Amino acid sequence: MLGLKLATDPRWVNIVESNIEEILTDHAWCEQKAASNAISLVTYNSELEELVTEMLVIAREELEHLQMVHDLIKKRGLTLGRERKDHYVNELFKFMKKDGSRKDALCDRLLFSAMIEARSCERFKVLSENIKDEELAAFYRDLMISEAGHYTTFLGFARKYKDNIDIDKRWKEWIEFEGSIITNYGKSETVHG
């Protein structure tokens, strides 16, 4: 369904298991950034009622996920660390087209968002299937389902709001680009790292 070019090596979970506090802190900040992204889409596209309505739902869900991760951190006696840079997301951001119409920019921002959600969904699936901690396995399985829904929502809106863009062609370009950079990741205990 996700169409990603490269699957995450399940051995990445061994790295994650070596530092649960780090993955949870990074995950919490990923949820915060996802909520902020949805709010930004509302801010810059307030005239698109259907998009605004759905982005508000996603922002709320992402904040709920942040709360869930924070609760898990506290329950385990861990500490929410400082925000981490997400080099993977920063590389994807550079691939976004900055020219064209407002609708063109919106569509590429939606594809950027879909790409992040697709990879996060895939990583959560790998975690849910391979982590030894049963509580975290169930936690990431539930979140994987939510991320899949967000991925399809962003992709659907890109298709809805396209003007003269071939969304399927542009999505294939996103998939190819992501496949070329993901080989640099999967070596640290972060969601995209």
TrEMBL record:
<dbReference type="InterPro" id="IPR010386">
    <property type="entry name" value="tRNA-Hydrxlase_MiaE"/>
</dbReference>
<dbReference type="Pfam" id="PF06175">
    <property type="entry name" value="MiaE"/>
</dbReference>
<protein>
    <submittedName>
        <fullName>tRNA-(Ms[2]io[6]A)-hydroxylase</fullName>
    </submittedName>
</protein>
<dbReference type="GO" id="GO:0006400">
    <property type="term" value="P:tRNA modification"/>
</dbReference>
<dbReference type="InterPro" id="IPR012347">
    <property type="entry name" value="Ferritin-like"/>
</dbReference>
<dbReference type="GO" id="GO:0045301">
    <property type="term" value="F:tRNA 2-(methylsulfanyl)-N(6)-isopentenyladenosine(37) hydroxylase activity"/>
</dbReference>
<dbReference type="InterPro" id="IPR009078">
    <property type="entry name" value="Ferritin-like_SF"/>
</dbReference>
